[in-house]
Give the backbone structure.
Amino acid sequence: MSQDFAGVLFRHRERIAEIVDVLARYGFAGLASRVGDLPEAGLAARALARKADAELAAGTAGQRLRGALAELGTSWIKLGQMLSLRPDLVGPDVAAELAQLQANVPPDPAGSVEATILAGLGRPVEEAYGSFESVPLASASVAQAHRATLVDGTAVVVKVVHACARQRVLEDLELMRALAGVLARDEEIARYSPTSLVAEFDTMMRSAMDLRQELVNLQQVTVNFSGEPDVVVPAPFPELSGRDFLTMSLLSGQQMSGRDSVIASGWEVDALVRRASDVYLEMVFRDGLYHADPHPGNFLLPDGGHLAILDFGDVGHLTGPRRDQLEALLVAVAARDVEELVDVVVELTHPPRDFDRDRLAGQIETWLNRYLSGGVGDLDMTAMVAAGMQIMHDNTLTFPADLALLFRVLLRLQGLGSAIGANVSLTELLRPYLN
């Protein structure tokens, strides 16, 4: 066992004991044998196995992992949510279970939020705002949101990072980095690049806890859509924002909760799905900066001609070179060019040494014949992506995190249309990028 890993265990021995106990109860005690080079590792695993809860350990791997991560709290729930985007890594069944992870975090105690804002602004809430509601609108894993008004009466929302979240997250990130470094010594696990995966997660979590990044995202998206007034995003107030809190305009409108809510807002259902999809494709292919969580709760419909998008804390980035690779991937799929598609996949995934190119080519050819036999406009994108990710998983190939995130966004857009009864296929809207 390395000195670095031993040092992390010593500093956070109570937390590691909690983690080990939870994993053991859910039937994951065998992971202890992967932790280090100690000859006692196997004995430790057998001892922990006796702690397994028979009922909890009887579930599928995905169910057990989801339960364990939910018990471990914010950082681990977020890790599970990130892994839910990676069926190429964990397999479609486990990914589907992890997609159900939700964080139900109680709001901070009275006075905590006000203390956070005072520390950041150097003046009390009573001076900074015209009014401030102490009871939050919502409380999520990283932050909670409060209604308020500016001194001039403008209605705003103030998003505030939970007081204890930062320290716990930083401690858990240190543990994850240490564990990933040790697990990477195992040849089988090393194929999945645990250190790179944790590094990506580390970056994501630090960004989520620094609300200055969300402020920048809002400013940039506002510029990107300055010529499209039907797209509305919250306006940030930098002078009333900081690392731990973000003040932005309060948007109003019909919550998108189904077909009836869309019609009640004045939108025609198919027209809304077309416009929402167009906006997302513009963000991806034109701007390279896109909203990464298109679920109904993040949309408001102010009227029949405007679309409001909320929560830009979770965004994706697609660089110029990656966009070129994505377009090459889409073109190869549309052309049903097996060899070109294999070339693009190899370039994107950096296969292991024992990679079998002919096996992959055969699987891709079967996949293309199955899903494109009726033409691009008729394909079932959800099933197609799931089957494609299963091929990646079977061949120990992992897509870059930015592409995995984008695939989730595209599938959620497809699901959004289905949820409100639209007759528009996302693949129809993608057609310009498939030629």
Summary: The chain has 21 helices and eleven strands. Confidence is low (pLDDT under 50) at residues 35-43. The first strand starts at residue 131 and ends at 132.
